[in-house]
Design brief:
Elements: E1 8-16, E2 19-27, H1 30-39, E3 46-51, H2 57-68, E4 73-77, E5 93-99, H3 101-114, E6 119-124, H4 127-131, E7 138-139, E8 142-143, E9 149-153
Parallel strand pairs: 2-9, 3-4, 3-5, 5-6, 6-9
Antiparallel strand pairs: 1-2, 7-8
Helix pairs in contact: 1-2
Length: 165
């Protein structure tokens, strides 16, 4: 049983020098369709979801379903070396990091390697990633591009949070 009975919507905008990005906290079924609308502006060629095999399949499927309404969507699994497998990107791809700190760092490295201005969306699933990695423009290997969106979705169990009473 969820602790929150009503929809939650919290919007902030973080600025660091010349870079800035929106941060959203959401809860509720209606908020999922909003995710696809925001991530698809401007229209992407595809969504490339970077994640780990340990994340619950139902959560991955939910993200795939909603982003898939806006553009073709694929999953790239993190390997043991902390890099996504077979992550070939087109210039119009949006990289979506779905997971904890390790996933967010890997997506940032992938975006930095692509050149140009890759679009990043962070969907952190751990407390550390929500409060640290997803909000930082510097990763363990140096600077990374600013995300176009950081979104915390409270509808799923998050590592470190009690979601039942």
């Amino acid at each position: 049983m969820s602790v929150f009975a009503s929809p939650i919507a919290l919007d902030r905008y973080l600025v660091a020098g010349a870079a800035g990005f929106p941060v959203q906290v959401r809860h509720g079924d209606d908020s999922w369709s909003e995710l696809a609308r925001i991530a698809a502006d401007p229209a992407p060629d595809a969504f490339v979801i970077v994640t780990e095999r340990t994340l619950p399949r139902a959560h991955i499927a939910r993200v795939l379903h909603h982003l898939g309404t806006a553009a073709p969507t694929c999953v790239r699994w993190l390997t043991g070396q902390g890099v996504p497998d077979g992550a070939a990107l087109t210039p119009g791809s949006v990289i979506v990091a779905l997971g904890g700190t390790r996933v967010i760092d890997a997506a940032g490295r992938l975006a930095a390697r692509t050149g140009g201005h890759p679009r990043l969306v962070y969907l952190p699933t751990t407390l550390r990633a929500m409060s640290d990695s997803a909000l930082s423009l510097v990763g363990p290997t140096g600077p990374r591009p600013a995300p176009v969106l950081v979104r915390v979705q409270l509808d799923r169990p998050v590592t470190g949070w009690r979601t039942s009473s």
